[in-house]
Amino acid sequence: MLNLTWLIPVFPFLSFVLIVLFTNPNKKLSSGIAIGSVAVSWVLSWGVFFQSIAGHIGMGEEAFRLHVPWLPTGTEWFPMGVNVDPLSAIMLFMVPFVCLMIFIYSVGYMHGDPRYSRFFAYISLFACGMLGLVVADNLLMLFIFWEIMGLCSYLLIGFWFEKPSAMKAGLKAFLTTRVGDAFMLAGMLLLYSQTGELTFAHIFAPETLEKLAHTQVNLGFLGSLPWASLLAMLIFGGAVGKSAQFPLHVWLPDAMEGPTPVSALIHAATMVSAGVYLVARCFPLFTAVEAGPQLGLVAFIGAFTALFASTIAVAQDDIKRVLAYSTISQLGYMIAALGIGAYVAAVFHLITHAFFKALLFLGSGSVIHGSGTQDMMEMGGLRKHMPITFATFLVGTFALAGVPPFAGFWSKDEILADAFHQFTELGAASWPFFVWLFLTLAAFLTAFYMGRQIFLTFYGESRRPHAHAHESPKSMTYPLIVLAVFAALLGFAGVPEEFPVLGHLLGNPFHHFVGHGFPATPLNGLVMLISVAMALGGLFVAWLVYGRNPLKEGQPDPLIQALGPVYTVLRRKYYFDELYQATFIRLALWLSEVCFAFDNKWVVDPLVNLAGKAGVALSNLGGWFDRTFVDGAVNGVAAVVGWMGGALRQTQTGRVQNYLLAAALAVFVLLVISVVV
Amino acid sequence: MVPLSWYLIVAAALFCIGLYGVLARRNAIGILMAVELMLNAVNINLLAFWRYLTPAHMTGQVFALVVLAVAAAEAAVGLALIVAIYRTRDTVNVEEVDLMKL
Fold first, then answer.
1. CB neighbour class for A475 (10 Å; exposed up to 12, middle 13-18, buried from 19)
2. 3-class SS at A485?
3. Which of A2, A222, A548, A603 is 20 to 30 A away from residue A265, measured at CA?
4. CA separation for the pair A345, A410 (Å, rounded)
5. Between vectors from CA A312 to CA A408 and to CA A533, what angle results, nearest 5°?
6. What is the pLDDT of residues A295-319, one digit of tens each?
7. Do B98 and A655 touch (CB under 8 A)?
8. Residue B45 near residue B12 (C-beta atoms within 8 A)
9. How far is the C-alpha of A344 from the C-alpha of A330, rounded, in Å?
10. Touching check for B94 and chain A: CB below 8 Å?
11. Greatest CA separation found in chain A?
12. Which residues lie across from A82 on neighbouring strands?
């Protein structure tokens, strides 16, 4: 089965090609091909996953590798291949399964869309990108699949391109992530220039890392730092863009303009976690230097983003935007976890988050489908009309808020426990303390905004006149149920071993599989209690504000009065869009105008015009010579021939008598000549 | 006896009259008649040369008879052509029969 790993991304790609080239007019066949292809990939992936669990697949040298020569580089060949280690195996467990659920869900959600087939083609290509990224065995392939996903993200956010806002959101996502990708590309090229390798097994070999950690690079006035730190920070730039971390987070909320299955698949469950996956994949590089700035940067950005995004989520009214900010916040958790070295916790949270966030997004899609609006202020009372959606959404909410025993509780708690453990060792002034503090506050806010969402959406009475909400079709509710089962139970794969009863019973298989070689964090009852208190406290406050007295139609959000101007700041997302508009975008526009002027007014166009005018003058001269002499000669010959022809033509009267006269005269002349001579 | 040259002069005169007729007449029938004159001038020559130079042989007479037959045939074909032209173009004036020139 492991030998077939390379086929996993191939099937969705074939499906993309087939749909685009052949079956575009046939909607049913197109969606069938897409779902079939991802189902095959899913079966293969789970085969690989279970074989990895059973076999002796480890990190680094112990990973399963298969590669073929790809690009000639001097005397060597740059290889292309697949790499299966516990990290990719666990991703293979999650990605195709979530993809499959979302593909099935899309059949119901996209029903009746004029570009139905094209949608399935795009998401197939996306699945190819994500699966290829997961199994890629070198950074270049990873980057290629990374960009394929970026393209799909652009195409799918702007899928309803009739809406100008969707078109702009697609562009914004593409350009914003491109900023991060530029850093990543630079990091990749520098890494290649330093090591001559991009294959993971080689660049993460201990001796290579040793070398990178001990050679210094001089950055001018910024001082010098080890290559490993610089490369790690550059590669982290790519992750910041893709995983929508501060300060490149602005694209993800706008990406919600795309169809909801896309939001769930790309902008919640899989693609945005590619950034986290990249950092996890390059984790040896990040930890190569013991006390470098790179881990601090990662931890700070992650923790800050987690808190920052969750505060914004509190003040959003669009059901999908709340979830979008929640996604940014949760990605911040994972990044922060990686920054403090909690590798296993980060990967664990990545997996559980993918399931419950896909569930929440699909649930919100179902709500939108059923109620016909995205504004939570117009919803209310949907509990009665959409029981399945409500139940599954509630499971997702508990998982995200971190209510035990749902999946999010275990993974989030592991991150918090890791942070807490480190700060108790390093002292309260260290950055793990701030990570822990930020993440705990974010946990509280997460529970609050999710509670707010539940109460606004499903409780009380409908705040919209003539709302006829209805439950969604089975193709949409069944994936919800399946994902809800995972969101509820997946956490048990990573219960700490010291946990009473359960830990002993289950034995933390996740840590043993993924975290082989990483010490398990000791269980900390205090941290667990605090995080449960935060989760329940957040939900309780949400109940106090929204659940006790459900909002009536037309009643404003009680937060507006409670928070005052703070609410406005949160509502406007800390004015980041405006800030970027005023700085980067205006600068870019000004630069473009200067370039435009340079091109069109000052230098390039005048030069071109001058060359053009000189060319015209030369051509005129040539034309005059041509007309006068060459044409004159040709016309002269023609005129002489014509004149002669005209003259001779006079003899051809067509009258036989004239010819006879000529013949007779000729005879007479000859006669005279013969007589005379 | 009349000398041979007289016959030849008559024949040459007759030929020239015929030639003039062919060149100058506009009426196709006149041209045909002029051609007959030229043929007859030839006949006079043939008979005159036979009588004065080789009276023992019959060749001149026979040749003249052949010429008469050919002339008759030629007159028949020519007249037929002229009738055909008259039917299609309503004229026998050769200057108006200019289809070849177009």
1. middle
2. helix
3. A2
4. 9
5. 40
6. 888 988 999 999 999 999 888 888 8
7. yes
8. no
9. 15
10. yes
11. 152
12. A66, A136
Identify whether the C-beta of residue A273 lies closer than 8 Å to the C-beta of residue A243.
Answer: yes
What is residue A167's three-state secondary structure? helix
| pLDDT computed for residue B34 by the predictor | 92
B102 to chain A: closest CA residue: A654
Complex ipTM, two decimals? 0.77
Which burial class, exposed, middle or buried, applies to A372 when counting CB atoms under 10 A from its CB (0-12, 13-18, 19+)?
middle
SS3 A84: strand
Q: What is the DSSP letter of A287?
A: T
User: Whole-structure pTM over 0.95, yes or no?
Assistant: no
- The residue count of chain B comes to 102
Size of interface A-B (CB pairs under 8 A): 19
User: Looking at residue A262, what is its pLDDT?
Assistant: 87
Tokens read off for A85? 């280690």
Spatial separation of the C-alpha atoms in residues A317 and A520, rounded to whole Å = 40
Residue with tokens 């050769």: B94
Asked if residues A106 and A123 have their Cβ atoms less than 8 Å apart, the reply is: yes
Planar angle of CA A83, A85, A86, nearest 5 degrees: 150
Q: In this complex, is the C-beta atom of B17 within 8 Å of any C-beta atom belonging to chain A? A: no
Q: Are A390 and A474 in contact (CB under 8 A)?
A: no
Taking the CA atoms of residue A48, residue A61, residue A131 and residue A474 in that order, the dihedral angle to the nearest 10 degrees is 40
Instruction: Say which residue the tokens 């003249």 belong to.
Output: B64
pLDDT given at position A110? 86
A80 SS3 class: strand
